Amino acid sequence: MTDLPSGLALLTSMITPAVLISACGTLVFSTSTRLARVVDRVRELSHSMEALFRGEVADFPEERRAEIERQLGIYVRRSRLIQRSLTAFYVSLGLYVAATIAIGLVAFAPGLAFLPAALGMAGTAYTFFGCVLLIREMRLAQRSVDSEMAFTLRLGALYQERHGIRKDQAGPEEPNPWERLRRLFQREVDDSGKGGDA
Fold it and tell me: What one-character DSSP code corresponds to residue 112?
């Protein structure tokens, strides 16, 4: 019975990294979801590019092709960042599990007392690195959304020009919808820029 408290203490110590393992697993799951969305979006852009090459889209094909190429470039960078962050999270997950095993080994080899802390710190460093990569990827995602919104506004302006619709045609009390959307988008960009400068 004298060994029972030490055994319980050992099990309690081995359970301690479980919180970090759970957090890292959540990060892996959410990051994998982001990667899947990027893959789906790239496939949609590929289909749109094929439709342009087949001549199925007659309205402003050059502008659409340039925007698709710009979006594909952003998504390539995003996918690489997500892949690197996933790798970092998987490495940190393995280090946390290794730290759990090392805690158990310390009971039989006291000379390895430094090992659990070293493995835990290394896992934390990899988790932090993966989070930094995700922050960079999130900034690229915002840039992609801004680019798509700006392109939508450009398309609206091109359609207005084709059909001879003036920006002030609806009158001062009922502005043109595309002009109202452009002003709203510009205001959001200005506000986000001010927030970033702050």
Answer: G
Tens digit of pLDDT for each residue in 60-114? 788 888 888 899 999 999 999 999 999 999 999 999 999 888 888 887 888 888 8
Are 176 and 170 in contact by the 8 Å Cβ rule? The answer is yes
pTM of the model: 0.73
Q: Where are the domains of the chain?
A: 4-136
Whole-angstrom distance, CA of residue 77 vs CA of residue 87: 16
Residues 39/79, Cβ–Cβ less than 8 Å: yes
Q: Yes or no: say if 75 and 41 are a contact pair by the CB < 8 Å rule.
A: yes
Are 192 and 170 spatial neighbours (Cβ–Cβ below 8 Å)? no
Rounded to an integer, what distance in angstroms lies between the CA atom of residue 107 and that of residue 140? 47
Q: If you count DSSP H runs as helices and E runs as strands, how many of each does the chain have, helices first?
A: 5, 0
Cβ-count burial 97-118 (b if 16+ within 10 Å, e if not): bbbbebbeebeeeeeeeebbee
